[in-house]
Design goal:
There is one protein chain. By secondary structure, the chain is α+β, with helices and mostly antiparallel strands. Helices cover 44% and strands 15% of the residues. The chain has one domain: Cytochrome c-like domain (Cytochrome Bc1 Complex, Chain D, domain 2, Orthogonal Bundle), CATH 1.10.760. It has nine helices and six strands; from the N terminus they run H-H-E-H-E-H-H-H-E-E-H-E-E-H-H. The strands form three sheets. It has a two-stranded antiparallel ribbon with strand order 1-2. A hairpin with a 7-residue loop joins strand 3 and strand 4. The chain starts with a helix and ends with a helix.
């Protein structure tokens, strides 16, 4: 019993030591539903945003540039508009930034984003939902090295790469009782204090296209696979009908 009490005390002290001043989504993560679209227009815009705003630090090394022909682009369009670090469309979507340098500059190497949409799926929502909410939840925080923080990923090391489009948001705080007699400060909402180049609804649409591309990038053949799935189900349905008719023919004289 004494040992149990000691362990509980240690756990309480660790919890107090590791706690943050803001109770940012520490209990239940609430994600917005991502309006994912696999139309060529959406994926092409998402590819443009990814190359221009993400590939400075993040690569997509499990995908080759020539895969982008699947979203309606020609190889010449890919070369002219999306390739800045290589001249061969068969090359992987890598970046020039070395992991060793990135770790030294940022403290940790930025992750490869090829499979990020699949990796971020959880009981709270799909990976697309996580990314869509995350990219819309940055706010100014002078206590952070980059000057930015995020509601979905508290104390994130990544700056807000899309701030020029969205603008600058600030967190509006509220103090609540945690139900145990203690006061906790939570983020009630985010407000845009410096508008960006886009209106909020326009920014959300751009993020939706970027997220759609990230989802597609994790499995470029998923639309083909789904189409084949419907064909397989239809074929199985026909076989089920034929099997029933055959069984009926065999047993029609059996009473």
């Amino acid at each position: 019993m004494k040992l149990l009490n000691k362990l509980l005390c240690v756990a309480a002290l660790l919890g107090a030591a590791l706690g943050t001043p803001l109770a940012q989504a520490a209990t239940e993560l609430k994600l917005d539903k991502a309006p994912v679209s696999f139309s060529n227009a959406s994926l092409q815009n998402g590819a443009k945003l990814f190359v221009n705003y993400c590939m400075g630090c993040h690569g997509a090394s499990f995908l080759r540039y020539n895969r982008l022909t699947q979203i309606g682009l020609t190889e010449q369009q890919i070369k002219d508009n999306l390739m800045f670090s290589t001249d061969k469309v068969g090359e992987q979507m890598k970046i020039a930034l070395r992991r060793e340098d990135a770790k030294q500059w940022f403290g940790v190497a930025p992750p490869d984003l090829t499979l990020v949409a699949r990796a971020r799926a959880s009981e709270s929502g799909t990976g697309a939902d996580w990314l869509y909410t995350y990219l819309r939840s940055f706010y100014r925080d002078d206590t952070r090295p980059t000057g930015w923080n995020n509601v979905v990923f508290p104390n994130v090391g990544m700056p807000h790469a899309l701030w020029s489009l969205q603008g600058e948001q600030e967190a509006r705080l509220v103090t609540k009782d945690d139900g145990h007699g203690k006061k906790v400060t939570e983020i009630e909402k985010l407000e845009v204090v410096k508008p960006g180049l886009l209106m909020p609804e326009e920014y959300d649409a751009q993020v939706a296209d970027l997220v759609s591309f990230l989802v597609w990038m994790g499995e470029p053949s998923q639309e083909t696979r789904r189409g084949l799935g419907w064909i397989v189900l239809a074929a199985l349905g026909v076989l089920a009908v034929l099997a029933y008719l055959l069984k009926h023919a065999y047993w029609k004289d059996v009473h």
